[in-house]
Amino acid sequence: MSLKPMPEMTEISKPFWQGLNEGEIRIQQCNACEGWVFYPRRHCTHCLSHDLEWKPVSGKGTLYSYTLTRIPTLPEFADEMPQALAVVELEQGVRVNTTLVGLEEDEIQVGMALKPVLDQVDAKGNTLLRFTAADKALDSLPYENPLDSLPRNDKGQVQVGVDNPVALQALVSDQFTDWSNSIVVDQELINAFAELSGDNYWIHTDPERAAKDSPFGTTIAHGALVQILQSRLTFALPFEITGFQTMVNYGSDRLRFPSPVPAGSEIQARARVKSVQQSRKGTALTLEVNIHVVGNDRPSVINDLVILYR
Amino acid sequence: MGLRGDAAIVGAAQYKPEKYATAPQMFHLEQVADLASRALEDAGLKASDLDGLVINGPQFHEASVFVPAMAAEYLGIELNFAEVVDLGGCTPVGMIWRAAAAIEMGQCEAVLCVIPMRMAPFGPSEDPAWMARAMRFGGHSTAYGAPEAEFDLPYGHMGQNTGYAMIAQRYAAQYGYDPEAMAKICVDQRTNAQANPDAMFYGKPLTVEDVLGSKMVADPLHVLEIVMPVAGGAAVIVTSRDVAKRTKHRPAYVKGFGERLSFKSPSYANDMTVTPVAAAAKRAFEMAGVKPQDMDAAQIYDCYTITVLLSLEDAGFCPKGEGMRFIKENDLTFKGNFPLNTHGGQLSFGQAGSAGGFSQVIEAYTQIAGRADARQLKRCDQVFVSGTGGVMSEQGALILQGG
């Protein structure tokens, strides 16, 4: 459910979130005064010492207070209604803002004994700390990838309806596709593009002068040429968007040419879904396409391509 | 310790609360100038009398820094004292005592305390829909590294409603809970609003059944126990005793104040049911040398009914845990034995953002000055005023006394 706000861990809080992801609840204790501290900080809230140590704890506690919401606090939480928002006091005395899970409304009482439930909320393993009654069997909530239940086409791509915002968000990933096929950008191709576009600057078209005067020691391809060669580079997206009337190339949110493509280079491409946003205009899927010279870690083209479905 | 009581509220101006959709849109600087001229007129003072300014920094439309200098330049006044206050709904109370303290220190003679809360016009390149989205987290910071962004929002903890609801649930578990008593706060205040033509809910009486039958928002809070956000804004003029002598109406001297804060989320309060106003009110009463029972009226910040209940108890108007009984046994209307929020409270008057607390300050002044028309108390010499920001996060108290 990545539509909900997600925690963005900091250097300070990393041990807490990483602990949850690894199935362990860790909070800080002060070595100077033995006071416990939550949420994570650089200093002790009891004595201001900076000598804090992360300690694994059971996560057992009691319900300090709670409320059941009858109107979602944000539209994204409509699936949790009523949200059982809770303040839990851990055995160590610190309080945690959280939610209760696996309980009927009439089972909830201020002061009740609670135990932690580790709730994995995305495919990356990000985990939130929720709670349930101490006598319940529930210990964790495994992640259910919204893409897993969707059909696949004959290419093996998962079919995501344009009207399925949760599944669309699950497409967003830091992981790029596998590399595409590769092609060679030779001088002949560069010359043809120079002729077509009218951009016949010597740095692209005059190998002799480029050998002498260019910082690259050879001619290089036009950035715009490498950008459009994307059409010859086929990368396999793991999904197919379905259920739309029209699909248009809406343009680019970002277009950069961070490194040159010397004439004769072999190039390849890969992509990832950077974001999916819904607006009155439709569903905008931003595909970050990177084109590299084979063997170069630095991309030659970064193109955040916006595809608009409606 | 504290104030001598030589600074006074001598005039005020307050926009009649209106729905955002139909209220006039004005730049905040424009509202500051408009409210200033109305408040000066009300007091019988001139712009050249002003030499101090206390203004809101947060949510000021035309600037986020250098707000006082920008406002002074726009007004065309020279200041010996300039201050920004950032205490949410407690800002007006915080402004009044800061102005009084600066005056008593001899720093200045006449201070404009002002919060503009009508919407500013949208610029040609501003998208109202985008701005509405940017506002959707309300008072919650979404900045990287903000504890609430990292530890509250992912769980759906957000907004004021649920924080106040959790305080109420904790209170209920410790002391018991009587929904009818809570509804009576709304009903008595609504009765007061029927004598205040400026109130949002003037002409719309209310019953206990209406409150208890209204939609539950977050247990145990019904929608009618929650303030309605409105467009508005207000200004108050605080002056020295010398200046106060040449104003038009009976001044309300600032005899005592207190302020207390230690958390933003009430989850981290030592005890959720002992609110910061306890310490703030104790200090204010001690400074003024008076007691809760000496007050002729209480203007208690009322973003929610639970705020009123806890403030009544923690400020010392009734013992801890007996607030519900106190509410049921007393007539809280302007005709009653314990006049509370005689303008209707924000629950019936409307809450103009962080200017909402000015409605309590201005009502206290108006009653002391004998200018409250149909809802005027027979005797009103001393009034307790409280302010509350965030989720009982920052609270303040004032004791005002007629000159």
List the helices and strands and how they pair.
The complex is a heterodimer of chains A (310) and B (403).
Chain A: H1 14-21, E1 25-30, E2 36-37, E3 52-57, E4 61-68, E5 84-90, E6 95-99, E7 113-120, E8 127-133, E9 140-141, E10 158-161, H2 165-170, E11 183-185, H3 187-197, H4 202-205, H5 207-213, H6 223-228, E12 239-242, E13 247-256, E14 265-279, E15 282-293, E16 301-309
Parallel strand pairs in A: 7-9, 10-12
Antiparallel strand pairs in A: 1-2, 1-3, 4-5, 4-7, 5-6, 7-8, 11-14, 13-16, 14-15, 15-16
Chain B: E1 7-14, H1 28-43, E2 52-56, H2 67-75, E3 81-85, H3 91-104, E4 110-117, H4 128-134, H5 147-151, H6 160-175, H7 179-193, H8 208-213, E5 216-218, E6 221-222, E7 232-240, H9 241-245, E8 252-261, H10 277-288, E9 297-299, H11 305-314, H12 323-329, H13 345-349, H14 356-368, E10 382-389, E11 394-402
Parallel strand pairs in B: 2-3, 2-4, 9-10
Antiparallel strand pairs in B: 1-7, 1-8, 4-7, 5-6, 8-11, 10-11
Helix pairs in contact in B: 1-2, 7-11, 7-12
Please explain how this structure is put together.
Chain A: This is OB-fold domain-containing protein. Chain A: Pfam families: MaoC_dehydratas, OB_ChsH2_C, zf-ChsH2. Chain B: This is Thiolase family protein. The complex is a heterodimer of chains A (310) and B (403). Chain A is 14% helix and 35% strand. Chain A is mainly β and 310 residues long. Chain A has two domains: 128 residues, Beta Barrel (OB fold (Dihydrolipoamide Acetyltransferase, E2P)), CATH 2.40.50.840; 152 residues, Hotdog Thioesterase (Thiol Ester Dehydrase, Chain A), CATH 3.10.129.10. In chain A, the strands form four sheets. In chain A, strands 4, 5, 6, 7, 8 and 9 form a six-stranded mixed β-sheet that branches. A five-stranded antiparallel β-sheet of chain A has the order 11-14-15-16-13. In chain A, strand 14 and strand 15 form a beta hairpin. Chain B is α/β, with parallel strands linked by helices. Chain B has a single domain, classed as Thiolase/Chalcone synthase (Peroxisomal Thiolase, Chain A, domain 1, 3-Layer(aba) Sandwich), CATH 3.40.47.10. In chain B, the strands form two sheets. Chain B has a nine-stranded mixed β-sheet with strand order 3-2-4-7-1-8-11-10-9, sandwiched between helices. Chain B has a two-stranded antiparallel ribbon with strand order 5-6. In chain B, strand 5 and strand 6 form a beta hairpin. In chain B, helix 1 packs across helix 2 and helix 7 packs across helix 11. Chain B is globular and about 55 Å long. The relative contact order of chain B is 0.19. At the A-B interface, strand 4, strand 5 and strand 6 of A face helix 5, helix 6 and strand 5 of B.
